[in-house]
Amino acid sequence: MDSGFFQILGIVVNLAHFLKNSFISRNLFPMIHTKINKKLAVMLLFMTVVLVSCIPKYLIPNDADLKTAQSHWPTATAPQLKQGYNIYIDQCTDCHRLKKLKKFTEDEWTKTLPKMGRKAHLDSAQYSNVVHYIFAKRENILAKKKK
Ligand code: HEC
User: Fold this and answer.
1) Which residues have CB under 8 Å from 145's CB, separation 6+?
2) Cα 104–105–106 angle (5° rounding)?
3) 85, 60 in Cβ contact below 8 A?
4) Residue 96 Cα, ligand 1 centroid: separation in angstroms?
5) For the whole prediction, is pTM greater than 0.90?
6) Less crowded by CB within 10 Å, the N or C end of the chain?
7) What is the pLDDT of residues 103-118, one digit of tens each?
């Protein structure tokens, strides 16, 4: 999370510089003004992409998540959880933003996931990997919160 904070801080500082520079050049060189606006638009677009793609690090599956997953599904492996995570942050954000794991109860996830798996066109292995990832990570996030 803190590296995300510095990333955003960096963007804000850059933007401040850029606005200052473009203000000065607009007054000094009105001819290249439109070019600068185009540059600004590209930069704003880039910033939006960076901000939206700012996925928190704690969502990456770790050893504790693997243990939790294996307590429910003994054959679960680390690469499978990693694939589940990749699907969750990648394909599950095609139509909406990342849905927070702790925002829904276990029953709600159980009800929603088959529908979302179909929407994301997952095959059965991909589907079980994303389901295992979601339930294991969710359980550990909630367990940490209680401490
Ligand atoms: C093809 C588009 C699409 C994809 C891909 C998709 N979703 Fe969704 N999702 C939706 C839409 C539309 C809704 C809201 C309407 C609904 O509930 O059907 C939604 C709603 C949700 C909700 C909220 C349900 C509720 O009860 O409010 C969750 C959670 C969710 N999606 C998770 C996922 C996960 C996890 C994946 C990846 C496996 C995924 N979605 C992939 C379109 C998609």
Assistant:
1) 102
2) 120
3) yes
4) 7
5) no
6) C
7) 999 999 999 999 999 9
